[in-house]
Amino acid sequence: MASPKPFACSAIALLFAANLVSAQLSANFYDKSCPNALPTIRIAVRSAIARENRMGASLLRLHFHDCFVNESGCDGSVLLDDTPTFTGEKTAAPNNNSLRGFDVIDNIKAHIEGICPQVVSCADILAVAARESVVALGGPTWVVQLGRRDSTTASLDTANNDIPAPTFDLGDLTKSFSNKGLSATDMIALSGAHTIGQARCVNFRNRIYSETNIDTSLATSLKSNCPNTTGDNNISPLDASTPYAFDNFYYKNLLNKKGVLHSDQQLFNGGSADSQTTTYSSNMATFFTDFSAAMVKMGNINPLTGSSGQIRKNCRKVN
Q1: 198-200 and 235-237: which strand pairing?
Q2: Which distant-in-sequence residues (6+ apart) come within 8 Å of 297 by Cβ?
Q3: Closest C-alpha to 108, from 120, 90, 98, 95
Q4: Does the pTM of the predicted model rise above 0.70?
Q5: Residue 190: which of 272, 251, 129 has the closest Cα?
Q6: pLDDT 10s per residue in the chain (319 long)?
Q7: Alpha-carbon dihedral 32, 145, 72, 62, rounded to 10 degrees
Q8: Both ends of the chain: CA-CA distance in Å?
Q9: What letter would DSSP give residue 174?
Q10: Burial environment of residue 268 by CB neighbours within 10 A (0 to 12, 13 to 18, 19 or more)
Q11: Which positions are catalytic?
């Protein structure tokens, strides 16, 4: 009989690593060093959303795209600008002409630097801003673990390769999230972030003109703002029912073949995700619980802590 020791050692190592992350990050990390950090972020996010409802989705997406790139996960790398000697992630295909909200993060960072110089990381600002955005739009809250530090590098190639594409099938989506330590359940729950936000025509054109598993009235409506050959950057809501409310209408829409992106409709297309999608469509509380848990899990992907990385003074450049 084969010895179970290698498996046991691996399991212990994984458990140790998970506990180490939990020990290094904590919800009260700034309670003494910058007690007004979280209220400052909350006020700034609510003010930004009051000026433009769409900003909530933009800030949530910034956090997601930050966490899915680099071995150090949520490290603020997405915020770094290109320089003559450095190429960041902003021009990666999933981000270029798409990611937004950088000015809001700049504003928050400036306010926090004014009260607690070089204490609060840009990565943590993104994580808290994501939660505050969801809450401001009617969604659930969760405890954000804090203490991440900022990267001094970024990866254009990883941003191009690791961020899930809107053309992905269910298997591709599951694998993409699994590569980051996230389960299929996490993937389906996190996809619910598409209950807010907008999509560019270039990312759903093929779906509305070539696919058959789409509600004809939705396709017709989307075509009016997304011509067959032009208008790549024209935008339409991912959830036309309640585009600025964080709720479960995204899943209700999928049951009616009203997923805007190909990858969205994959969550209800005769596959293994159908059951969970159906549950979320009728039980918003379950969706909120699973979404919150998945956000915490995503936020804990290999963070830089301790003396690793740095606390940037300006989120757009390394110190």
Answers
A1: antiparallel
A2: 181, 182, 186
A3: 120
A4: yes
A5: 251
A6: 444 444 344 444 444 444 444 448 999 999 999 999 999 999 999 999 999 999 999 999 999 999 998 777 899 999 999 999 889 999 999 999 899 999 999 999 999 999 999 999 999 999 999 999 999 999 999 999 999 999 999 999 999 999 999 999 999 999 999 999 999 999 999 999 999 999 999 999 999 999 999 999 999 999 999 999 999 999 999 999 999 999 999 999 999 999 999 999 999 999 999 999 999 999 999 999 999 999 999 999 999 999 999 999 999 999 9
A7: -100
A8: 56
A9: H
A10: buried
A11: 65
135 CB-contact burial (10 Å; exposed 0-12 / middle 13-18 / buried 19+): middle
Quick one: 275 exposed, middle or buried, by C-beta within 10 A (0-12, 13-18, 19+)? exposed
Of 174, 169, 196, 171, nearest in space to 185 by CA: 174
Joined together, the tokens standing for residue 223 give 């075509």
